[in-house]
Amino acid sequence: MLEVADILRQYGPAYLEQFGEKMPARQRRAMEDLLRCRTAALGGHLYQCNECGRPHYSYHSCRNRSCPKCHAGDTQTWLQQRQAELLPVPYYHVIFTLPQELRDLTRRHQKSL
């Protein structure tokens, strides 16, 4: 199954080449964490089966809040809580695209914009 880390490995270098200097530090950190999550880069623990003696190595997780591997359960709980808050009326969720001229500005000032 394709994972976010697979996509970051394939397209991340080109993305960083184009937007790396403008990328907020927390986004760069999240990207780095997702790439290292549950790999040898973060180390791990060696377990051994009590019955057959077979060893099993388990890599450490990155624990980044943006990581789908680490927080899938938390995300599901959050979604269920938000669904419980929905009013029993029809409504629309609107998503729009900012003009190209504003994207750099919003990328650098995400909190205020």
List descriptors.
113 residues; mainly alpha; two-stranded antiparallel ribbon; flat
Short summary of the structure?
The chain is mainly alpha-helical and 113 residues long. The protein contains four helices and two strands; from the N terminus they run ααββαα.
Characterization of the model:
With 113 residues, the protein is mainly alpha-helical. It has one domain. The chain contains four helices and two strands; from the N terminus they run ααββαα. The chain has helices at residues 4-19, 25-36, 68-85, 100-108, and strands spanning 44-48, 55-59. It has a two-stranded antiparallel sheet with strand order 1-2. Strand 1 (44-48) and strand 2 (55-59) form a beta hairpin. The longest helix has 18 residues, at 68-85. It is flat. The model has no long low-confidence stretch (mean pLDDT 92).
Shape type: flat
Low-confidence stretches: none
Number of helices: 4
Distance between the termini: 36 Å
> Could you tell me the radius of gyration in angstroms?
19 Å
* Beta-strand residue fraction: 5-15%
| Total E-strand runs | 2
Question: H/E order of the elements?
Answer: HHEEHH
The mean pLDDT is 92
Query: Given the helix and strand composition, which structural class is it?
Result: mainly alpha
Count of individual domains: 1
